[in-house]
Design a protein that fits this description.
Layout (H helix, E strand, L loop, with lengths): L2 H27 L8 H15 L1
Helix pairs in contact: 1-2
C-alpha cells in the first residue's frame, strides 16, 4: 500500500468514526445509552488507523 492509499484510508476511517460518534449522540439523545457493539467498532477503527501510521 503506497503512501497516498494510506492517507486515503485514514481519512475514510476518520470519517466513519465521526459518523459513529454522531449516531451514538443521536441514540443517547433519544434515550438509548451505550448501545452494544459500538465500542467494538470504535476499537477496530482505532486499531486500523494505528496500523496505517
Amino acid at each position: 500500500m503506497n503512501e497516498d492509499m494510506k492517507i486515503g484510508a485514514k481519512i475514510a476511517l476518520e470519517g466513519v468514526k465521526e459518523e459513529l460518534i454522531k449516531v451514538r449522540a443521536e441514540l443517547k439523545r433519544k434515550g438509548y445509552d451505550n448501545r452494544r457493539g459500538f465500542t467494538t467498532i470504535e476499537a477496530y477503527i482505532d486499531d486500523s488507523i494505528k496500523e496505517l501510521k
